[in-house]
Recover the amino acids of this structure.
């Protein structure tokens, strides 16, 4: 086989693979659009491994997370149990962070960075294909399975430069039929990573927010 012919075949195969990959991505985004339209809430357990590259250290945490969609607004609660215990609730344009070690909470306005925060939080639960495509440059890396569940692995690069300065890309193992992710790996410019695994996912049921209740008084007062 001549070199020219071999190159031509290689180019043709590459083009076919790219076309198939694009079709797979569009099918995933379409499925996310359909399932996210029915999404109202989710609860899940999580395990996270935050790796600090400079000192080669792994910080392991676990806990609970929920998300509730109400129209255009989203309420999110994150409760870390055990090591590094914290409770974080984001709603009504602010984030409250409770530290059981101090028995008080801090409040932070998030309205200014709402778009960036929403684009990150949506990766876990309820994101539509249109939302992902609007905020991320997406590469479909093919089908996979996690705990027997069929997922699609996506690689996401932020379109927003301010977010890109803080996150280089995200690998996402998403179940398009439910608009939830079972695994995420966030890559940071300093080579740190955060890997999250989600399990015991409950969809579209009334969320018990009592474990996420912020107690105590403001830390600054």
């Amino acid at each position: 086989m001549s070199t020219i012919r071999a190159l031509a075949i290689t180019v043709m195969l590459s083009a076919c693979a790219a076309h198939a990959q694009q079709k797979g991505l569009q099918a995933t985004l379409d499925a996310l659009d359909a399932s996210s339209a029915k999404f109202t809430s989710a609860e899940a357990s999580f395990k996270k491994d935050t790796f600090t590259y400079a000192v080669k250290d792994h910080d392991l945490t676990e806990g609970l997370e929920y998300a509730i969609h109400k129209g255009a607004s989203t309420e999110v609660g994150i409760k870390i149990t055990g090591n590094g215990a914290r409770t974080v609730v984001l709603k009504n344009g602010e984030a409250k962070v409770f530290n059981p070690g101090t028995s008080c909470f801090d409040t932070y306005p998030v309205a200014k960075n709402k778009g960036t925060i929403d684009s990150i939080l949506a990766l876990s639960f309820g994101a539509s294909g249109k939302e992902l495509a609007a905020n991320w440059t997406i590469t479909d890396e093919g089908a996979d399975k996690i705990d027997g569940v069929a997922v699609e692995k996506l690689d996401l690069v932020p379109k927003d430069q301010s977010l890109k300065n803080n996150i280089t890309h995200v690998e996402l193992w998403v179940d398009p039929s439910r608009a939830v992710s079972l695994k995420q790996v966030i890559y940071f410019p300093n080579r740190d990573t955060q890997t999250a695994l989600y399990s015991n996912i409950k969809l579209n049921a009334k969320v018990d927010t009592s474990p996420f209740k912020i107690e105590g008084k403001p830390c600054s007062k």
Notes: The first helix runs from residue 3 to 36. The two ends are 79 Å apart (CA to CA). Residues 3-218 form a domain with the outer membrane lipoprotein receptor (LolB), chain A fold (CATH 2.50.20.10). Residues 6-21 have pLDDT under 50 and may be disordered.
